[in-house]
């Protein structure tokens, strides 16, 4: 799948979001924030595309995808955009392969450090404890898949999984499922 098709799938999904929680409720407010973040990353991807920065265009799209998926998991909205294997993404021939390698090598330890900077926030009796565990496991699974692909020299899908996991992680922090203990600069939430 080429990046422009990936963008249109994500944009259509984002445009079809209907928040499920009552106006004025905390979860409705959270849904609004997550939708704003998705839109922001999709707009970033357009900016990068116009400036010929294919690597950051892709990273922005996948990051938006992570936020989008995490919002579905949290029950904030119901959309279906299917599953995607980042190995299916095709870059144009003229991308900066050194930038791709550098960004992937930088994001790997960043995500690993960010994971080690959080813990599940809800108390053991809360049903949100399971949600926190599931979210953190999704992030760890994305990190592991990214690492496997890096070892195989598959840098494009590796960066995809790292950014996707980071999107889930930031959404989980924003949703109050995970508490950040240190390395606050690695997260989009204001502390």
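^ Assign residues to that structure.
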């Amino acid at each position: 799948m080429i990046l422009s098709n990936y963008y249109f799938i994500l944009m259509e999904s984002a445009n079809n979001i209907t928040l499920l929680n009552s106006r004025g409720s905390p979860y409705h407010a959270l849904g609004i924030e997550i939708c704003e973040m998705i839109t922001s990353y999709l707009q970033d991807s357009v900016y990068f595309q116009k400036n010929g920065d294919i690597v950051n265009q892709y990273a922005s799209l996948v990051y938006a995808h992570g936020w989008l998926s995490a919002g579905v998991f949290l029950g904030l909205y119901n959309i279906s955009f299917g599953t995607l294997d980042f190995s299916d993404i095709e870059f144009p021939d003229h991308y900066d392969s050194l930038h791709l390698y550098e960004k992937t090598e930088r994001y790997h330890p960043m995500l690993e450090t960010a994971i080690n900077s959080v813990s599940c926030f809800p108390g053991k009796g809360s049903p949100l404890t399971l949600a926190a565990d599931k979210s953190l496991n999704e992030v760890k699974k994305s990190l592991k898949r990214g690492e496997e692909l890096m070892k195989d020299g598959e840098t494009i899908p590796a960066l995809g999984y790292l950014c996707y996991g980071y999107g889930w992680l930031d959404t989980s922090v924003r949703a109050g499922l995970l508490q950040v203990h240190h390395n606050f600069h690695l997260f989009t939430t204001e502390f």
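The helical segments are 3-15, 26-50, 54-73, 97-115, 128-151, 155-174.
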